[in-house]
Design brief:
Strand content: 25-35%
Number of helices: 6
Helix content: 25-40%
Strand order of the largest sheet: 5-4-7-8-1-2-3-6
Mean pLDDT: 75
Shape: rod-shaped
Distance between the termini: 83 Å
Structural class: alpha+beta
Order of helices and strands: HHHHHHEEEEEEEE
Number of strands: 8
Low-confidence stretches: 79-95
Length: 243
């Protein structure tokens, strides 16, 4: 380690000094106004940085290019300026250019981390994205003179087949009554979801057809059931259609 305590400033600020050098530098701080002022500037410059990403180093060649350009620019653009008092600049005139480079590299690393994280999340989102495909959609026919309307739509979604049932102008249910959707195969009914309409008479339910196993459905129907656990239709069919 360099014997000049003024050059331990960044290591102290970054918590990279062992216990003994740290104590020695803190003793030095009590006597060196320049180091105290530089430390105050470091804390002021970094207190509002609130990066939440885990630190990840950007590619080494990127950091080298950036830092190289920082120092090269410092050399090329250096112009005569009014000199501060000698005691203010003694021993640490290198701190500000190096501080700018280090902070810039730190910001670069955090920005690279966040961009990499966003890119990974976007790529994952693209992999998860699927295309919904309409298989069939049929109007549900009401009984003679009934005001009900409905539609059954089958959609392939995420490699699964879903049936969406929508109905309107339905009568309000009473007590434990529900509207039960049935899928029929050669006249045998299978439960396919229940629903209760809202105050406007609108009701809907979605049913994953894959859950019922391999079937060749030929009819969809809706009945008004006294409870939601009917194993076979007990009420009259109010809407139905062949598939």
């Amino acid at each position: 380690m360099n014997n000049n305590p003024c050059e331990w400033l960044l290591d102290y600020f970054n918590g990279q000094l062992d216990e003994v050098p740290r104590r020695n530098f803190e003793n030095h701080l009590a006597e060196c106004q320049n180091c105290r002022e530089e430390l105050d500037e470091l804390e002021m410059l970094t207190k509002d940085l609130a990066f939440t990403a885990e630190p990840v180093d950007p590619p080494s060649d990127m950091k080298q290019r950036i830092l190289g350009n920082v120092f090269e620019t410092e050399k090329e653009e250096q112009k005569p300026v009014l000199q501060q008092p000698a005691e203010r600049r003694k021993g640490n005139g290198w701190v500000k250019p190096l501080l700018a480079a280090v902070l810039f590299a730190s910001l670069l690393g955090n920005a690279y981390t966040l961009l990499s994280k966003d890119q990974a999340e976007n790529n994952a989102g693209e992999r998860r994205e699927t295309i919904d495909r309409l298989q069939t959609s049929v109007a549900l026919k009401p009984g003679e003179g009934a005001p009900f309307n409905g539609r059954a739509t089958m959609v392939e979604k995420n490699n699964r087949t879903e049936m969406i049932i929508q109905a309107e102008n339905l009568e309000s249910t009473e007590g434990s009554e529900v509207y039960q959707v049935w899928l029929l195969e050669k006249g045998k009914p299978y439960r396919a979801g229940t629903f209760v309409p809202n105050e406007d008479g609108l009701g809907a339910v979605t049913y994953h057809l894959d859950e019922a196993g391999e079937h060749e459905w030929d009819t969809v129907a809706i009945t008004l059931e006294p409870t939601d656990d009917s194993k076979i239709p007990k009420g009259d069919i109010i809407l139905s259609s062949e598939l």
